[in-house]
Design brief:
The protein has 13 helices and nine strands. The protein is an alpha/beta fold. It has two domains: about 5-170, NAD(P)-binding Rossmann-like Domain (Rossmann fold); about 175-290, Orthogonal Bundle (N-(1-d-carboxylethyl)-l-norvaline Dehydrogenase, domain 2). The protein is globular. The mean pLDDT is about 95. Strands 1, 2, 3, 4, 5, 6, 7, 8 and 9 form a nine-stranded mixed beta sheet that branches.
Length: about 300
């Protein structure tokens, strides 16, 4: 992304978590004038030490921004960002663009387009995937849908944050539908990776040897390779928490239930994450779903 394509465009970003911080850094690196907000003031101060404007509310972020990118957890938090006290919607200028990056119910996202249109604000339904490392490099995937006018205004900012910006339709909702499918696969893959690793450990196989073999065999998956490395390290620091998949697989099941479509594997994986959550692992890394299996000695945290 050249600085010339960022010239004259102010981007606001709300939510400096694992993904949002990297996305904001990518926008800053690309030369956009950047305004940021997070509910944790110390995180905002740390970020703007290297450039950008610290804001104290979503409304302040939105004031004067051409594009506002929201990277919060769910629909409820997005509602608060837009329509809560000091919300962004009323402060956004007509013709500006709101980019929603959370995993949400597709129907809710489709309805949000109309709600924002009442404020004269354009909308891009833009869930994301790729993890914190790719976000920091500007290499995430964005699954987007929205009007041509919204893309015209926000396209250069999307390109600064993502290696792949998929345009999946001209109305909101299509991006969220594809993200739901992605999360179905991701959640099932993590759950079955944990099940396989747990079986190997229970059968007395050395966990490191098992990991080495599987990651060089046909049974490997991206999630096995990534998440079982956390298990081997005994480190359940949450990069993506157990409760994220309680939510996301729940959204997949809700979407399918509305059209009476069966999701047997997603249902089982959802129950596994629910069990891990209620067992006390809700805020641990999603690989902690392996802890639901009895009678296995998991690797201790490496020093």
């Amino acid at each position: 992304m050249s600085s010339s394509s960022a010239a004259g465009i102010t981007v606001g970003l709300i939510g400096l978590g694992a993904m949002g911080a990297g996305m904001a850094a990518s926008l800053r690196r690309a030369g956009f004038a950047l305004r940021v907000f997070d509910v944790r003031p110390e995180v905002v101060r740390g970020f703007v030490a290297e450039g950008g404007t610290a804001c104290t509310s979503p409304a302040e972020v939105a004031s004067g921004a051409d594009v506002v990118v929201s990277v919060v957890v769910n629909a409820a938090q997005t509602e608060s960002v837009l329509f809560g006290e000091h919300g962004a919607a009323a402060a956004m200028a007509p013709g500006s663009v709101f980019v929603m990056c959370s995993t949400v119910d597709p129907g809710w996202s489709a309805a949000l387009e109309g709600r924002l249109a009442a404020h004269g604000v354009l909308y891009i339904d833009g869930p994301i995937s790729g993890g914190a490392a790719r976000a920091a490099k500007g290499e995430i995937t964005m699954m987007t849908s929205g009007s041509a006018a919204a893309y015209d205004r926000a396209g250069s900012a999307l390109d600064a944050m993502a290696a792949k910006v998929y345009k999946l339709g001209d109305k909101a909702g299509a991006g969220s539908k594809v993200k739901i499918v992605n999360q179905l696969l991701a959640g099932v893959h993590i759950a079955v990776a944990a099940e396989a690793m747990a079986l190997g450990i229970r059968e007395g196989v050395d966990p490191d040897a098992l990991y080495e073999v599987i990651t060089h065999s046909a049974g490997n998956s991206w999630m096995f390779e990534n998440r079982m490395a956390h298990v081997l390290a005994g480190d359940y620091t949450p990069l993506s928490a157990v409760d994220i998949f309680v939510k996301d697989l729940g959204l997949a099941l809700d979407t399918a239930r509305a059209s009476k479509f069966p999701l047997p594997l997603a249902s089982t994986a959802h129950q596994m994450f629910m069990q891990a959550s209620t067992a006390g692992f809700a805020r641990e890394d999603d690989s902690a779903v392996i802890k639901i299996f009895p009678g296995i000695d998991l690797p201790a945290k490496k020093q």
